[in-house]
Design goal:
alpha+beta; 2 helices; 4 strands; 47% helix
Amino acid sequence: LHSLDERPAVPHLIFSGHRCFMNFLALKIDVDTLRGTLEGVPPLVSVLQKYSAQATFLFSLGPDNTGRALRKIFEFYRGHVAEVRRLVEESA
């Protein structure tokens, strides 16, 4: 095993019997706020560079309408459930 400072930059090869496996780790980093962009990303980039690691950074741009979208979904299902309930009661 390697200490963190001696870790090789290439994927580790693991031999098991006659098979060889490569270990990979995919890093996806979501950045959702301006504070995360300004204060969180630079230290993460430094750590990634130190260990010759790579990551994909995904930045949220524009207003967050997640709550509005969820509300629409719940309103749709609430109306759908009410309609199904009405149809079941009429058929009984």
